Structure formats: C-alpha cells, structure tokens
Amino acid sequence: EAQVTQNPRYLITVTGKKLTVTCSQNMNHEYMSWYRQDPGLGLRQIYYSMNVEVTDKGDVPEGYKVSRKEKRNFPLILESPSPNQTSLYFCASKGGEVRHEQFFGPGTRLTVL
Amino acid sequence: AQKVTQAQTEISVVEKEDVTLDCVYETRDTTYYLFWYKQPPSGELVFLIRRNSFDEQNEISGRYSWNFQKSTSSFNFTITASQVVDSAVYFCALSGLNSGYALNFGKGTSLLVTP
Asked: Best of B54, B103, B107, B110 to disrupt the A interface by mutation (most A CBs within 10 Å)?
C-alpha cells in the first residue's frame, strides 16, 4: 500500500529535550516536506526536500532541522524544543512534477511542556 | 506571492442540506494548480481534487462538485445533500509552476453537519 508513515504519532516532552520525528514514504517520491498545523493558522511549511541531500527552508523553519540522506526518509529534528513548537505535524511527499498532489502522513501530535 | 483565502471559518448545516465552501486565491503564475483536502475528526489529510489553471471545466464526483472560475479567482466546493460523515475541516490549496512545489493552504473551513 502506498503510504507516508510518521513516528511517533503522539509525543509529550519537556523543553530542551532533543527529539526526532521520523517520516518515510514508499512511493519513490523525490519531493518531501514537513508542515505544522495550528488552530487559526492552517498548515504552514517548515522544510522541504526536492531530492536526496537537497533541503530548503519553508515558511516557518526556525527551531527545526531536517536531513535527507535517503530518498524514502525525511526526519524532522527539534534540537531544543520549546512550548511554541507544540503543534500537529504532517509529513508529505509527492511525485516529480508541480501538478502532482501531495500525500500526507497521519500526523504527529507534539506537546512540549 | 501566492495566497489562498477561505473566508468561512465555520459552517453548520443540517443533514441533507447543500453547502458551498468558498475558496479565493491569488497568484502571479500563469500556470497553477488548485487542490482541496479534507481533514476529518481523526486528523488525517485526505486529497479530494486537483484542478489545473488551464482547465476551467467543472467537476462532479458523487455528491461533491467543484466550480473553478478564473475570472473571479475562485475554486468553490459544493456538497450536495450533506451527511454527518461530511463533518470535517476542508482546506483549499494552491501551487504555482513558478513557485516550485510549495503548497499554499488556506486556513480551512470547519463544516459541521448535524442530524
């Protein structure tokens, strides 16, 4: 089954404790991205990757890091999480053309205390 | 710059009513793509439809229909004979050929369908 998977699905952590949210897709997509969803703000892009070893900032990259060492994986790293990073996070992937729709993972609900 | 506006924050209807969700967009790209996604209470994002800027033909899929009008920069979504299972947040989104792969979302419209 074609899908985007994320882990963990739920995470409660404390300020400053480094964490990684994993994302993996099995559709051989070149493009992957991370979004955060907050009430009243909709979905905003954090980082994206056009292909292996190619990453770039989205609209709200502060406080996040990403890496793309393999085509299928695109982890999101929070080196020192803060409460304002409490949010619902989505990973997405898409095929190699602009017209292609993005396929989203199930979401990771992160709470930073 | 690209922008998507969904002016309706929340809509509440009674089952079997028709409901239209509005989406207005701004882009400088001449080639662009419009999307609708559904986010049910379970939280996942479900792709519903894509529309190309050069194809203004309206589309119908069961109880769902989409009206794309370039003249008014709108891509509205109508649910006919709404059902409780249609209750969700609906997002309109835009990507432009010259803007790369970035998908710009509206802030969403929360639809509640009551029995």
From this structure: B103
**One-letter amino acid for residue B13 of the chain:** V
Q: Which CA distances in Å does B76 have to A58, B29, B34, B79, B91?
A: 27, 20, 11, 10, 11
Work out the burial of residue B22: count CB atoms within 10 Å of its CB; fewer than 13 is exposed, 13-18 middle, 19 or more buried. middle
Chain B positions in Cβ-Cβ contact with residue A33 (cut-off 8 Å): 101, 103
pLDDT given for residue A97 in this prediction: 72
Q: What is the rounded distance in angstroms from the CA atom of residue B84 to the CA atom of residue B78?
A: 15
A32-69 pLDDT per residue, tens:
999 999 988 889 999 999 889 999 999 899 999 999 99
What are the tokens at A52? 């292996």
Cross-strand pairs, B65: B60, B78
- Name every chain B residue with its beta carbon within 8 A of the beta carbon of A109: 43
- Please tell me the predicted confidence (pLDDT) of residue A89: 98
